[in-house]
Amino acid sequence: MDSQANGKPAGVLDNPVVGMAPWIIFSVLVGPGRFELSVVLALAVSVLLIVVNRIVRRGGAPKLLEVAEVVFFAAMAAVGLVASAGTRRWLETYAGEVSNIALVLIAFGSMAVRTPFTLQYAREQVDRAHWHSPAFLRTNYVITGVWGLAFLVAAVAGAYGDLVLRDPDNLWTGWIIQIAAIVAAVRFTAWYPGVVRARVRREGETGQGA
User: Fold this and answer.
1) CA–CA separation, 160 vs 34, rounded Å?
2) How far apart are CA 7 and CA 5, in angstroms?
3) Contact indicator for 124, 10 with CB cutoff of 8 Å
4) Residue 33: how many CB atoms within 10 A of its CB?
5) Angle CA(164)–CA(168)–CA(174) in degrees, nearest 5?
6) Number of Cβ atoms within 10 Å of the Cβ of 45
7) What is the largest CA-CA distance in the chain?
8) Could you give the CA distance from residue 36 to residue 16 in angstroms, rounded to a whole number?
9) Which of 140, 85, 69, 154 lies closest to 110, judged by CA?
10) What is the block-wise mean pLDDT of the chain (210 residues), using blocks of 10 residues?
């Protein structure tokens, strides 16, 4: 599968991990006393990604994930501006779980409509001839599913810390488990395509030798 990245900046933007940066920033940072900081940073990075993408690629429609994150974080910022003290406390406690659940819905929802969100990133890294190959499509279903599971784990861990332990800043549920789930998804995203390419090459060599 030949890369179509037009230089280093485009290659970086082609990585779905970069597209999820605003969500990762928000889910890791948000907590008591940090709602405003986390939502402003996440929204700023969301807008920056769209602007940089358009500059680097000289136009082109924003990706599904980019649009979703701008809408989500702009809405969160707007709610935060007019929220009462009680609502603000609720946001500081549960906004991380809300964002994680939103990502779970985006991931599995995109799979349900047969357009896993990582496809838009992957298609910018490979030749058009591979876009509809079963291996390429299956790879993106798997990677998108892994991200959905990672954010589901993060949501469950955060909810357990908030609702059961009554400790939003608990080291394990608020930080270690959530960060570990994200890191695992990042590493899987980098590792799995190579495994698939190696398998395809082996199958091709086997077929030629048969």
Assistant:
1) 19
2) 6
3) yes
4) 8
5) 100
6) 18
7) 71
8) 25
9) 140
10) 46 76 87 89 94 78 88 94 90 91 95 93 88 94 96 95 90 93 94 91 67
Decide if 3 contacts 122 (C-beta within 8 A).
no
Extended strands (E) in 154-193: none
Cα dist from 6 to 38, 92, 159, 189, 201, whole Å? 32, 40, 42, 21, 25
Q: Nearest 5 degrees, angle CA 176-CA 144-CA 97?
A: 40
Q: What is the pTM of this model?
A: 0.85
Residues 6+ apart with CB under 8 A from 120: 63, 64, 65
Distance between CA atoms of residues 170 and 159, nearest Å: 11
Helices 64-82 and 35-57: angle between axes, nearest 10 degrees = 150
